[in-house]
Amino acid sequence: MLKKHPLLTFIFFGFILFLISNRLDELRVYQGATVAVYAIGIASLILLIGYSGQISLGHGALLAIGGYAAALSRIHYEAPIWLTFVIAVLAAAIGGALLGLAAARLSGPYLAGTTLALAIGLPSIANQFSIFGGEQGLYFDIGLPPASLGEDFTQYKWYFWISWSVALIVLYWLRNVMNSRYGRSWRAVRSNDVAAELAGIHVGRNKVLAFTISAGLAGIAGALLAMTVSLVSPGVYPLVLSFSLATGAVLSGVTTLGGVMIGSVTLVAIPEIALAIANRYGSETITTNLPGLLVSALLILTVLFVPNGPVEQLHAKRAKKGHSSHSLIEVTVRVGSKTLSTKKK
Amino acid sequence: MIEDLTVSHGAIKAIDAISFSVAKGTLAAVIGSNGAGKTTLMRTLSGLKDASSGRATWMDHNLLHGKPEHHVRNGVSHVSEGKSVIAQLTVEENLDLGALWRRDRNEAKSTKDEVFQLFPRLEERRTQLADTLSGGERQMLAIGRAYMSRPQLLLLDEPSLGLAPLVVEQIFQSIRTIVDTMGVTVVLVEQNAMGALKVADYGVVLNLGVVAARGKASDLIADPAVRAAYLGY
Amino acid sequence: MNKLLEVFLIGISAASIYSLMAISMVLVWRSTRVVNFAQAGMALLSAYIGYELVSRTGNFWIALPLAMILGAAFSAFIEFFLMRTLLKHSSQGAIAAIAPIIATLGLLGVIRATIGFIWGHYDRQIEAPLSKVGFKIGENTIAMSPMSLFVLLFVIGLVIIVTIVFQKTNIGLALRASAYAPEIAQLAGIRVSGIRTLGWAIAGASGAAAGILQTVNGTGAISPESLEFSLLLVFGFIAAVIGGLESLPGAVLGAIILGMVLAVVQIYISGTLVFIVAFLLLLTVLILRPQGFLGTKAGRRA
User: Fold this and answer.
1) Cβ contact (<8 Å) for A342 and B35?
2) Is residue A100, in this structure, part of any structural domain at all?
3) Per the UniProt record, which residue ranges are transmembrane (chain C) (predicted)?
4) Cβ-based contacts of B39 with chain C (< 8 Å)
5) What is the CATH code of the structural domain delimited by C3-91+98-300?
């Protein structure tokens, strides 16, 4: 069904979520909203890593730019909610474009370290300039849900609705972008820059574009995250957030958008599981340390044993049975690289 | 001794069931055009690449088992394609590298003297970085480094690549000297078929992964089919 | 007191710690082409082990070398069990380029959680073995104490020893050859995988020293979330990259440049800006001279 009627599938999924949201308690609804936020953040990273071969360990910084932009536009200009989100996207995209210009010249570990340094460095700006509200941060209030939704329509359900609507739109749009000319160029660039360049793809421009789009999506995730906690502050976008998103992307599988829910649900579920275990044994050390241990251990195990993610792993298994899932461009690029390497000698 | 050796890159067979043997103390040339499987053969014999099937032995030593460093310790040295020297190290350091694993420090020193005797140019430049050497000097250094391990079998991959004809001549003569005066067995892989066959005792012609012809080097040079296909006249 | 002298003294003490960290990063990078983002976590773990050793032996001068040996062993262990498996499994696809980065991040998380389990989340204190009160020149106290002087001399000594080992010994030759051209080194008969593990071990010892000296030279307190260790990671990385990520003298030079620039910012502008200045410095270097000050062009690849 997903293959034939993607739009219908997305709408159907949205409807299911709507039904679910009516049956959950407040905490679960809040967590559901967080899953949507993570899904957008992880999707933006998958776009970057899996489709353009660049890595960011500082995506939290881009989320922060989006969140602060949204909050500032709300506080100073009383912008309507939808406009704050648009502003968040634009602000983060501009930041991402600047970073992308530098990033296009860097490879693997250099880029990882640079983005990491940004994620650690950016919060100090919030402390330096009073407009950002320092350590306490700024209040970000999107207002009460419309009265027309009824009396028992809670604030968190409102957040849930907004987050999921945005998430579904974003994922649907991303899916289409990936299957477009841009998506194919990005995959070509990821597989082999030189061959892609020879095939007439402007590698640098494509990398910057991928970074910009990824940043824009991170921006909206940042605004949504701020919305669910009604606050922007350095503490809302800690370094751990950047690491979590990278973790989520790897758990989901960086080569395909299909697994994005796996990572986002895992990120929200693990602290819950850890809490359940901790309650059973009643120890505070377990509560504080187990989530980190589980996430990190899962991360290492994934990289070691399912490096391309669970979804890709299934695809690979099916491909072995005869259903090849390779797209044409990748084959051409591989052949291209082979000729190249012989020539280089 | 090579029997039915097959090596694949993924689904492509780079070498398909080839067999030949090389007598001790002789110089064998493996010739063939680009893509014939020559480099793959060398990389397999030195342990850099795994074979799919077949056997390859040198004396009692199984060449298809173990890592390159293991082979070196058993008297098989490989000079890989493209002047395999380390540019960031000095000439002398590159040479010492070949003997690092040896316990007999004094003998290693006399081996170095032998190398300097063979290639006096290297002695003049012993403290220079390998980066500053000319193409021919680098090839000498690469061969010298392999010789530092005191090999019984020396595998040379395209030593003539990118060198001027005069320099090629000189390198080939040095290889002949290594065989004749030091008793080393050499397998020389070359695209420069004529030059290689002229110095070699024995020749193997590879074409698209299979042996197209083999025999005494002088016979191969005389063979009209080989001349037409590989020697270019 | 003379402000310029103060900048210099603060800069040079900071640089001494950064260079230890940068040296670890360079060693690991050279031996396995991996930037070890868990390096700071390993340094933190070593600081805790140092704390245990100091409280058990009661002697800092025994604890420091012991902790360095344990740090080396731990680092070698990681290379042997984690990195080798990783290179075997994740060498293809989009993940290949980032798998080592992700794995070291995961390792960082595991180390932090483990520290939390063992030592809990409140501060531990390592007593400084030497006075941290600045020397007096006439009436003025300068920004250099016996403790920070020791750190400086220790680092200089370590750098000299490492340089001699690398340039003058056979092991050093094997380490350099394996770093520059692993395949050629292998063909020359060197057991490259063992040499890699050794590279990680030396890096572990250097990182352990960084962790402990950073702690005693600073407030003396360590906690799993300690900011100083995020700082150590980022500044070590930046120093290594400024120097070119390939070269040991480069790592020291990078650390000195970074230490000095940050000291100027701290004294003349504002202490809260050091992170962002460090980031801008990194970006500038990467854009203007991507191979670093002492790196070669070839080093940038991979």
Assistant:
1) yes
2) yes
3) 6-27, 60-82, 94-122, 142-166, 231-261, 267-288
4) none
5) 1.10.3470
